[in-house]
Structure to design on (182 residues):
């Protein structure tokens, strides 16, 4: 699937019977398919990030010195880059994902055993990576708006995915440490 569609809309098209209108409709339909794919991937990646970072699966695995951090980083990077590649994410988006995973691995490898799980929990690389998927979805929403797709149609695609993400994020708030005023 390729998300790099050239979006050229002929605003002078008067009738849907013209070839320009037909090509415009094809471009819009491809854009909406890409938006659906990006919103679905964003949902999956957000769930993955919530389970690994917020619920602590990543920190749990990292309690095995170096090998645990390595395994956790490889699993996360492989999954996230697989999703990014399916969406034809930009080089810089993939680069940021890799950097977050390398930083996470570095933290786990350099921090003394026992403390590395806490440090790993504090730096939530998968959540930072999930932001790249959200940015991709947002850019496709903007392109859809620019091509004249109705807001209702855009929201029908995106809102169902983001509603679940909001519920997952709300549930994860329970696991966040709270700061008490001194």
């Amino acid at each position: 699937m390729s998300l790099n569609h050239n979006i050229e809309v002929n605003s002078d098209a008067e009738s849907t019977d013209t070839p320009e209108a037909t090509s415009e409709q094809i471009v819009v339909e491809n854009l909406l398919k890409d938006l659906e794919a990006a919103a679905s991937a964003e949902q999956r990646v957000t769930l993955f990030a919530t389970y690994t970072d917020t619920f602590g699966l990543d920190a749990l695995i990292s309690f095995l010195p170096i090998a645990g951090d390595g395994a956790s980083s490889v699993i996360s990077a492989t999954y996230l880059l697989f999703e990014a590649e399916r969406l034809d994410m930009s080089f810089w988006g993939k680069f940021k994902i890799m950097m977050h995973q390398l930083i996470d691995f570095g933290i786990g490898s350099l921090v003394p055993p026992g403390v590395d799980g806490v440090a790993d929990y504090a730096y939530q690389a998968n959540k930072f990576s999930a932001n790249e998927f959200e940015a991709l979805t947002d850019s496709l929403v903007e392109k859809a708006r620019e091509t004249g797709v109705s807001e209702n149609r855009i929201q029908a695609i995106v809102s169902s995915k983001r509603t679940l993400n909001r519920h997952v994020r709300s549930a994860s708030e329970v696991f966040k440490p709270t700061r008490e005023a001194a």
Notes: The chain has seven helices and no strands. Residues 74 and 132 are 18 Å apart (CA to CA). The longest helix spans residues 19-54.
